[in-house]
Design goal:
Layout: E1 12-21, E2 26-30, H1 47-57, H2 64-68, H3 70-75, E3 76-85, E4 88-95, E5 103-106, E6 109-112, H4 113-124
Antiparallel strand pairs: 1-2, 1-3, 3-4, 4-5, 5-6
């Protein structure tokens, strides 16, 4: 009998998304990383907000209000994602507070948003287009 192959951990896999309220309370959305994750739910259950938070953490250069919409930008002070890059656990954080919005924190190291996309692509071995 043969053993099924172990799923590849190559590439970028989002493990969870966390949004931090102004009160300090956190909303965390975890994903099933064994396969494909599908976001489903009733209207206004944070499906689009979750995707926009991932995009913002990955270097979206818009203001929090433009990237996440005003209601979200006013309610939260930070968004973060836990992910794996080629199997290596990684954390990316972005502040929504004025004066900190143009920075991305990757595993505790801070980078300007403008440098971040090239840095993450290089880490993954993907071409910069």
């Amino acid at each position: 009998m043969t053993t099924p192959p172990t799923p590849s951990r190559k590439g970028l896999r989002v493990e969870s998304v966390t949004l931090v309220h102004t009160s300090g309370e956190m909303d965390t959305y975890a994903f099933n990383t064994a396969g494909l994750s599908i976001l489903s739910g009733v209207r206004n259950s944070s499906k689009t907000t979750t995707l926009k938070a991932i995009d913002y953490c990955l270097g979206n250069r818009d203001s929090p209000t433009e990237a996440l919409k005003a209601a979200v930008a006013d309610e939260y002070v930070e968004v973060s994602i836990e992910l794996t890059l080629d199997g290596t656990p990684t954390e990316i954080r972005r502040s929504l507070q004025y004066g900190r919005q143009n920075k991305v924190v990757l595993d505790g190291d801070e980078f300007p948003v403008g440098e971040f996309s090239d840095r993450i692509l290089h880490k993954l071995g993907w071409p910069i287009l």
